[in-house]
Amino acid sequence: MAALGAVxxxxxxxxxxxxxxxxxxxxxxxxxxxxxxxRVEALEAGSRLAADLAHDLDNLLTAVAGQAELLLAxxxxxxxxxxxxxxxxxxxxxxxxxxxxxxxxxxxxxxxADVIDVNDVTGTAAGFLQRKFGTQIKVxxxxxxxxxxxxIGAGRLDALVLTLxxx
Length: 167
Description:
Blueprint: H1 2-73, H2 80-105, E1 113-116, H3 118-133, E2 150-153, H4 156-166
Antiparallel strand pairs: 1-2
């Protein structure tokens, strides 16, 4: 009978330990979930901040492009200043396209797909890369004039070509 009492006591002790483990496991899972929720909130806040900054930057770039357009209207097309104004306008519009993916990350509307001339985007990116690389590296393009425009999210192709060029 004493042996049966010892077995029962051991079973009760084992059950108490198992209950303690289950409680500790539930507490650990609650703590993990709370930490996960905090990280999600921080990521969402960062995404909203990026989207807000991209929106503000896009507004500034639109103003720059507009001013360049007004400047172009008052210049002779053959003027050296006309070429500079065209480059300013093009750079502002290209940079504005790069802000669209950031705006969509923040939970705003997703960037719509635009029909884009691959050769034009590649040529613009090549010019940018050549200026960045300087004389150390020569950027050469072999563009196919038969390539048809593609539908892609604005800014995505720019980012892809620039990433490939830098690598």
